[in-house]
């Protein structure tokens, strides 16, 4: 039995994905910022950056791990993060266009976080010249036929406009 799927798939581009990412950070990190101010007793926003810099390791590790776990669960259960869903995009398996598995979501999110940390580490501690690496990744994603970023290629996922039937 040979079944072909002739469906026009609209892959989501760089701009909408960036908007969704910004929305996710606002939705996730703004409440954490308010909670930090409430708990720390520090009501001056100017000191926030200095205090976070002193707490860089524990704060960054905790929030990054929490964000990654929540992102994995949301992509697996809902098909995307709140920002992605608000922008009308869904993360799907690259071959079948079905919902991603827990393993795919885990690989996608952890590879995205790992790549971000590697880029930031290289820029902060090795050389400013490594700032070109994320730009190259973005350029490759812009010109990719399926508009996949590196973490999408690693996890074999795509981000598409999708209206469930």
Features:
RDD; membrane; cell membrane; 165 residues; mainly alpha; Pra-immunoreactive
Low-confidence stretches: none
Helix content: 55-70%
Number of strands: 3
Which radius of gyration do the C-alpha atoms yield? 18 Å
Biggest sheet record: 3 strands, antiparallel
Distance between the termini: 23 Å
Helix-and-strand structural type? mainly alpha
| Helix-strand pattern | EHHHHEHHHE
Mean of pLDDT? 82
The strands making up the biggest β-sheet line up spatially as 1-3-2
- Tell me the strand percentage band: 5-15%
Number of domains: 1
Number of helices: 7
Based on Cα principal axes, name the global outline. globular
Transmembrane segments: 22-39, 59-79, 100-120, 126-143
Main location: membrane
InterPro entries: Pra-immunoreactive, RDD
Membrane topology: Multi-pass membrane protein
Please tell me about this protein's structure:
The protein has 165 residues and is mainly α. It has one domain. The chain is built from seven helices and three strands, in the order βααααβαααβ. Strands 1-3-2 form a three-stranded antiparallel beta sheet. Helix 3 packs antiparallel against helix 5. The longest helix is centred in the first third of the chain and has 27 residues, at 14-40. The chain is globular, with a radius of gyration of 18 Å. The two termini are 23 Å apart. The model has no long low-confidence stretch (mean pLDDT 82). This is RDD family protein. Residues 11-156 form the RDD domain. It is a multi-pass membrane protein. It holds the Pfam family RDD. Keywords: Cell membrane, Membrane, Transmembrane, Transmembrane helix.
């Amino acid at each position: 039995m040979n079944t072909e799927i002739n469906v026009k798939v609209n892959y989501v581009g760089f701009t909408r994905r960036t908007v969704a990412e910004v929305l996710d950070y606002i939705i996730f990190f703004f409440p954490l910022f308010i909670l930090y101010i409430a708990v720390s007793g520090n009501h001056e926003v100017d000191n926030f950056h200095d205090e976070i810099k002193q707490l860089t390791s524990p704060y960054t590790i905790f929030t990054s791990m929490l964000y990654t776990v929540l992102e994995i669960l949301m992509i697996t259960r809902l098909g995307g993060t709140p920002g992605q869903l608000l922008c009308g995009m869904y993360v799907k398996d690259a071959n079948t266009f079905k919902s991603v598995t827990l393993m795919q979501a885990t690989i996608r999110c952890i590879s995205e976080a790992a790549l971000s940390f590697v880029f930031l580490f290289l820029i902060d501690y090795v050389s400013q010249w490594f700032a070109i690496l994320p730009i190259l990744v973005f350029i490759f994603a812009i010109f990719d036929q399926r508009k996949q970023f590196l973490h999408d290629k690693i996890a074999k996922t795509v981000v598409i406009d999708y209206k469930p039937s």
